[in-house]
Amino acid sequence: GDPTTHSGTASTGTLDLLDANGTRVNQFVALRGNLVAYKEESAHALIYKASPFYFTQTLLHASLTTISRRAVAPVFNGDQHLVVTKENIILWDGQNLDRVGDPIQQDFYNNLNWDAVESIWVVYSPLTEEVLIGIPVGSATLPNKVWIYNLRYNSWWPTDLDFLAAAPVFNVWSPPRLVGVHPAAKKIYHLF
Asked: How confident is the model over 79-101, as pLDDT tens digits?
């Protein structure tokens, strides 16, 4: 059938996203009009073509590893992705890798609770041009530390998750947004 109109009953083919080693798909994220399937060990683009096989698959990167199912955030209007890999944190445009996590790589990965990596999350705030990465450290099984990356200034700083846990919701000339207040840094973070 035709997936654009949901008509017909005939099969239009299937796409197999399994590698030879059978790694799972961790996340699907749009990138410049295509859909990227981030797998445990690779990244693939699903590109819209036309009938009868509506999508084709292209291997974008054979060894791009995502650390969890929520380890990718689109940034810069979806033109790039910030990806938490098993080795570093990168900005990726589908071709070029920028290892933006180099300054914090040792602290980030040495303190990470590797038994709880599935709880890692990544959120982008376009209002502040910052990416927040929640990670479990020590024996924590849920994120208890947040690394904040400022895209404009290419800078990192860590904070505890407690300032986000009590974040109020309020309205400032726009729909309600979740914000976090960090008293020591005297900053307000708009998360969504």
From this structure: 999 999 999 999 999 889 999 99
